[in-house]
Amino acid sequence: MVPLRNTGSALSPFNSFLIMQGLETLALRMERHCENSEKVAQFLQDHPAVEWVNYAALANSPYKATCEKICGGKASGILSFGIKGGREAGAKFIDALDMILRLVNIGDAKSLACHPATTTHRQLDADELKSAGVSEDLVRLSIGIEHVDDIIADITQALDKSQA
Fold this sequence. Notes:
It is built from 6 helices and 5 strands; from the N terminus they run H-H-E-H-E-H-E-E-H-E-H.
């Protein structure tokens, strides 16, 4: 019992409560994540500062049929897009975000953004980035449960600033 007590292998009652609360609301949160993500992906698809969008629920996605089959058309809360202007524009975009947080983790209740070429993969040169499957224009978004209009407004102003 001493190792269990010392290493924390047994959850405290409060931690158990928090985990149960999270599990009980997971379905509701995932509905909102997916709904918001699809709207953001559709918005990005039509934005002039965006080269491409990768989101399985979009009609033109090569993964649409698989998304329908496995997930009932609800892709996830994660999407990626290519920003015009590559590395420099991606860094400007991330720096210009107000509400969306600049974090590399995913799946939070709040919206998060990452530009791998200037954060997690910044030590790699162009060839190494390509080899790792990371383009210099890649921006990854983990869309949260905030109101979708607020998410899109923040993305819009950051895209505008990234192209200036």
